[in-house]
Specification:
There is one protein chain. By secondary structure, this protein is an alpha+beta fold. The protein has two domains: 1-46; 48-84, no CATH class. It has helices at residues 7-20, 27-46, 71-80, and strands at 48-52, 57-61, 66-68. The protein has a three-stranded antiparallel β-sheet with strand order 1-2-3. β2 and β3 form a beta hairpin. The termini are far apart.
Length: 92
C-alpha cells in the first residue's frame, strides 16, 4: 500500500524541485518553476493547524503565518470543528 503524503511533505518536495529549475534556461522550465512555487504557496495557505493558547485558538499555516480566531470562528470551531482559512489582509 503506498504511503500517503502529508501536505507539508508535498510542499517541501515542490519547493525542492523548484529550486533545481531556473528561470534563465528556457520557457517551459521557467513556467514549471513558477507553477511549482504557486502550488506550494496555495497549498501552504490551505494547510492550517489549530493550537489552543491562553488567549484562545491560534491558527498557523505551513509557512508560519498565524493569527488568533475571532469570537465567531472560535464558536464554530468548538461546536462543529470548522477550521477557517488564513487569508492575507486586504488593504484598501
Amino acid at each position: 500500500m503506498p504511503e500517503r503524503t502529508s501536505d507539508e511533505k508535498l510542499i517541501a518536495q515542490a519547493q525542492g524541485i523548484a529550486r533545481r529549475l531556473t528561470y534563465n534556461d528556457d520557457v517551459p522550465q521557467a513556467e514549471a518553476k513558477h507553477m511549482l512555487h504557486e502550488l506550494s504557496h496555495r497549498l501552504g495557505a490551505k494547510c492550517v493547524k489549530v493550537h489552543r493558547r491562553r488567549k484562545g485558538f491560534q491558527l498557523v499555516t505551513a509557512f508560519g503565518q498565524s493569527r488568533y480566531m475571532t469570537w465567531r470562528e472560535a464558536i464554530l470551531y468548538r461546536l462543529f470543528r470548522v477550521v477557517p482559512d488564513i487569508r492575507p489582509t486586504e488593504q484598501a
